[in-house]
């Protein structure tokens, strides 16, 4: 059987139909605000309204042009990223450690308060020279890694190290307490605390004993609702693992990937 239309005429009709359909759809978009097409225009408006923050753009540029990658693995990073995404609001995020991943952490928390605590003043200057948008303070630690066993066995003999009396600001009696931090650290309630510093791989290094203890005190002294998310890196090392189990508590451990543990610590009240 022969085709009803010759090929040229068939193509003309098809093109005319497509053009007519396109004009019809365009007229619906222009003339009606209550048609079935409105959800599409609303979605477009929401996409167009999204404006990335300056720090997010800087982070994209930095990591797209740098061969230096963050210390944590992608799966470890995703744990913190997923928590920030689930909270879906600007957060107070305290990070022990300033380094190649700092711009990333700050960009994950747009509009929030992200503060970095670093032991080495010269390193702070080096990092902030390339990323002045970051906020960082220098910390003076009173401990050394080689004291870890003694601190763990003796802290119970100091009343102001015990959970019922432990505090941080000005607590020079408890050697594990970070007692001389900037007021901002004590005045804010931190939604997330990342412990990826100070150094803890040689005897004279400060070790993370004080950071772990102080994070636990901050979390348990929280007055607001909700838990404090505490992330501890390098739990493959003895000191990090032992002090985490002592002060952050296994029962609050909700997830572990690679060398990272994630705790959700409720207020003591």
Characterise this structure.
There is one protein chain. The protein is 42% helix and 13% strand. It has 269 residues and is α/β, with parallel strands linked by helices. A seven-stranded mixed β-sheet has the order 3-2-1-4-5-7-6, with helices on both faces. Helix 6 (121-130) links the parallel strand 2 and strand 3. Helix 9 (209-220) runs parallel beside helix 10 (238-248). It starts with 6 loop residues before the first helix and ends with a strand.
Task: Describe the secondary-structure layout.
Blueprint: H1 7-31, H2 38-49, H3 54-65, H4 74-87, E1 92-96, H5 102-107, E2 113-118, H6 121-130, E3 136-138, H7 148-154, H8 183-187, E4 192-195, H9 209-220, E5 228-233, H10 238-248, E6 253-257, E7 260-265
Parallel strand pairs: 1-2, 1-4, 2-3, 4-5
Antiparallel strand pairs: 5-7, 6-7
Helix pairs in contact: 9-10
Q: Segments where pLDDT lies below 50 for 5+ residues?
A: 1-38
Largest sheet: 7 strands, mixed
Task: Provide the helix percentage.
Answer: 40-55%
Alpha-carbon Rg, integer:
27 Å
What is the string of helix and strand elements?
HHHHEHEHEHHEHEHEE
Number of helices: 10
Beta content? 5-15%
Going by helix content, strand content and strand pairing, the class is alpha/beta
Task: Quote the average pLDDT.
Answer: 86
What oligomeric state do these chains adopt?
single chain
Reading side by side through the largest sheet, how are the strands ordered?
A: 3-2-1-4-5-7-6
Topology, number of strands: 7
What would you call the shape? Answer: globular
Measured distance between first and last alpha carbons: 86 Å
């Amino acid at each position: 059987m022969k085709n009803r239309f010759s090929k040229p005429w068939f193509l003309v009709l098809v093109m005319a139909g497509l053009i007519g359909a396109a004009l019809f759809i365009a007229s619906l978009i222009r003339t009606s605000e209550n048609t079935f097409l409105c959800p599409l225009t609303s979605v477009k408006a929401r996409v167009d309204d999204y404006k990335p923050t300056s720090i997010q753009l800087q982070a994209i540029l930095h990591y797209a042009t740098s061969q230096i990658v963050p210390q944590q693995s992608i799966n470890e990073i995703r744990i913190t990223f997923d928590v920030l995404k689930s909270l879906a609001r600007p957060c107070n995020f305290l990070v022990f450690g300033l380094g190649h991943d700092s711009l990333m952490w700050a960009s994950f928390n747009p509009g929030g308060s992200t503060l970095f605590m670093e032991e080495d003043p010269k390193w702070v200057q080096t990092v902030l020279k390339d990323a002045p948008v970051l906020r960082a303070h220098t910390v003076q630690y009173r401990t050394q890694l080689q004291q870890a066993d003694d601190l763990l066995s003796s802290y119970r003999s100091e009343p102001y190290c015990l959970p019922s009396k432990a505090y941080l600001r000005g607590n020079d009696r408890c050697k594990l307490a970070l007692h001389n931090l900037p007021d901002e650290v004590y005045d804010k309630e931190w939604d997330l605390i990342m412990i990826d510093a100070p150094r803890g791989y040689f005897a004279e290094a400060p070790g993370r004993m004080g950071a772990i203890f102080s994070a636990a005190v901050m979390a348990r002294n929280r007055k607001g609702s909700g838990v404090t998310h505490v992330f501890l890196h390098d739990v493959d090392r003895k000191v990090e693992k032992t002090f985490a189990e002592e002060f952050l508590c296994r029962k609050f451990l909700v997830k572990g990937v690679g060398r990272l543990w994630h705790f959700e610590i409720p207020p003591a009240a």
